[in-house]
Amino acid sequence: MVTPARPPRREDGSSVQIGALVPLTRPGWIEAGHHLLTGLELAVSDVNDAGGIGGRPLELLVRDTAADPRKAAAAVDELAGLGVAALAGEYHSVVARAAATRADALGLPYLCSSSVLDALTDQPTDWVARLSPPQSRGWRIYADFLLGAGHRRVAVAAQPSVYWAAGTRILRDCLAPRGGTVIELDMSALTPAAVCDALAAHRATALLLLVGHPEPAVPIVTAVRRDQRLAEVLIGAPAGQPEFAEWTALLGDDGAAVPFLRYLPERLTPLGARVETALRERLAGAPSFVAYEGYDTVAVLADVLRSHGGADRARIAASWPSVAVDGTRGRIRFSRTPGISVWQWAGPPVQVVDRDPAEAEPGRFRILHSG
After folding, report:
1. 155, 159, 279, 332: least surrounded by Cβ within 10 Å?
2. What span, in angstroms and rounded, lies between the C-alpha atoms of 247 and 257?
C-alpha cells in the first residue's frame, strides 16, 4: 500500500488550489480541451464571486496533458507536490486512466470530468470520482439506437486503443444477442478507399468511426460520402467527434447526419441555463457538453471543499458518498456502480444526436434517442 503524500500546509491564508488536467496541444483534441477549461474557469470565477472557499479564493493550476498518459501522470506528481487539494478534468479516457491511477497511488482526490472508460483504475478506489457516464452505459444506448433504426450489419473503422477496443466489445455484446453483426476494419492497415470497398463487400448498413479526429476521421467521411455504392450507409461517431465546430468547418454538409453521443438533458437546469449564456460569451459560440462537465466538476469540488474540511485530501475523498449538488444538467450524487472501480454519478443524461442537415444553422442538433 502506498502511503498518501502529505500536502504542504498553508498557514498564510492563500488560495485553495485545484489541479486541472486538460488537453491543450496536439495530439490532444484541442477544441475539447478548450471547452473543458472554459467550463472549469467559469465555475471558479462564480465560486470566487460568491466568496470563495471560506473566504479564500479558489485557484486552478492548469497542466496540458496533450493526450499523453505519461505527461498526465507526471503532472499529477507535480501538482500533488505543489499542494493542490484535488484534481479535476481530462477529456481523453486513456489519459484520465493514467491520471486516476497515479492520483490513487498518491492519495490525491480526483474528480474526472469527461472520460468514460469503465476501468478508470484497476482496483476499486475511494480517491477517484467521475461525472461522465461509463462507456458501457453510453455505448449500450448507442447500440440500442442502431438496432431501433434497423441496423444489423455494423462496421467499425477502428484504430488500436484500449478505448476503441472496449467500445467495439460493448457494441458486439449488445448487437449479437439481437441478430446484429459487428465488422471490424483495422485502420492501421486500410486507406479510406479500402474502407469503402470493405463496406460494399460486407453489405454494411452503418459505419462507426472509432478513430482520431481530424485524422483519419475526416478523410473516411469524405470518401464514404463520395462513394455512390454507399449512399444509404449511416456514418456514426459515438465518441462525439461531430460535437465541435471544427467538424463542420472541415466537412461542411458531409458532416451532417452523423449520430454521436452527448451528455446533455433535453432541458438544462436553471443553473445550466445561466451557465449556457456565460459559456456562449466566453466561447463565442455554442458550448459543448464538455464545457458543462467542466463547470459541474468545479461546482462539486467547491461544495465539498466548503462542507467537508476545506483542503484536507482525506476528508475530500471520504465525502464522495455524501455529495448532493445541483449541477447544470441535473442533481449530482455519487454511488458505487457494479463493475466500475470509482465513485460514479449514476444519473448523467445520455443522448444520441446529430446535426440536422435541413438546418442552415450548424449548431442545430436533432435528438434521435435518449437513455
Report:
1. 159
2. 12
38: cell is: 472554459
β strands within the chain, DSSP E: 16-22, 58-64, 86-89, 110-112, 128-130, 153-158, 181-186, 206-210, 234-236, 260-262, 325-326, 331-332, 334-335, 343-345, 351-355, 365-370
List alpha helices for 107-209, DSSP H.
135-148, 162-175, 192-202
Enter the pTM of the model: 0.94
User: Which residue's entry shows cell 492520483?
Assistant: 103
479564500: which residue's cell? 56
For residue 5, the tally of other CB atoms under 10 A from its CB is 15
E strand segments, 166-247: 181-186, 206-210, 234-236
Angle at 343 between CA 42 and CA 51, to 5 degrees: 30
Measured distance CA(191)–CA(178) in Å, rounded:
31
Q: ∠ CA(361), CA(362), CA(368), 5° rounding?
A: 105
| pLDDT higher than 50, residue 261 | yes
Residue owning grid cell 459541474: 296
3-state secondary structure of 18: strand
Q: Taking Cα atoms as reference points, which of 329, 250, 258, 257 lies closest to residue 288? A: 329
Q: Are 224 and 182 in contact (CB under 8 A)?
A: no
State how far the Cα of 216 lies from the Cα of 191, in Å rounded to an integer.
9
| Residue 47 to residue 298: CA distance in whole angstroms | 8
SS (H, E, C) 83-108: CCCEEEECCCHHHHHHHHHHHHHHCC
**Which of 215, 198, 258, 210 is closest to 234 using CA atoms?**
258
**DSSP code of residue 126:** S
The answer, yes or no, to whether residue 360 has pLDDT greater than 70, is no
CB 229 within 8 Å of CB 207: no
Q: Which three cell numbers stand for residue 171?
A: 457494441
- Spatial distance between the Cα atoms of 139 and 284, rounded to a whole number of angstroms: 31
* Cβ atoms of residues 343 and 336 within 8 Å: yes
The residue assigned the cell 502529505 is 6
In this predicted model, what pLDDT tens digit does every residue of 203-252 receive, in sequence order?
A: 999 999 999 999 999 999 999 999 999 999 999 999 999 999 999 999 99
